[in-house]
């Protein structure tokens, strides 16, 4: 910037307004981009939750069949094999559900980079114009 002490006050105010206007436009664009990115992550998280529900239903069916087979056959290997498969599917569903719910927390969707940039820009404007 040029030496601000030689500019009239109206020019300084004009420069300040132009800088603030440009800064606000850029921050709004950044916030919009960050929110779009966060919405995309939320969509993936919802997909993981839907997948977890499907896998959990399959796991419950397998575990139910395994329990019936285990009770009917009193521990024959086929029943225990079904329990192992059902347990593995249940663990997969749990992992998917944990990841999906973690990605949907509100603090992970907030535009944190934009908030940091706004604070930094406000400080820069204050320093630049000795406000």
SSE blueprint and pairings:
Layout: H1 9-73, H2 77-103, H3 106-109, H4 112-129
Helix pairs in contact: 1-2, 1-4
Descriptive overview:
With 131 residues, the chain is mainly α. Helix content is 87%, strand content 0%. The protein is built from four helices and no strands. Helix 1 runs antiparallel to helix 2 and helix 1 runs antiparallel to helix 4. It starts with 8 loop residues before the first helix and ends with a helix. The model has no long low-confidence stretch (mean pLDDT 80).
Overall average residue pLDDT:
80
Element-by-element helix/strand order? HHHH
Structural class determined from secondary elements: mainly alpha
- β-strand percent reads under 5%
Per DSSP E runs of 2 or more residues, the count of β-strands stands at 0
Poorly predicted runs are none
Apparent shape = rod-shaped
Distance between the termini: 16 Å
DSSP helical segment count: 4
Compute the CA-based radius of gyration. 29 Å
Question: In oligomeric terms, what are we looking at?
Answer: single chain
Helix content: over 70%
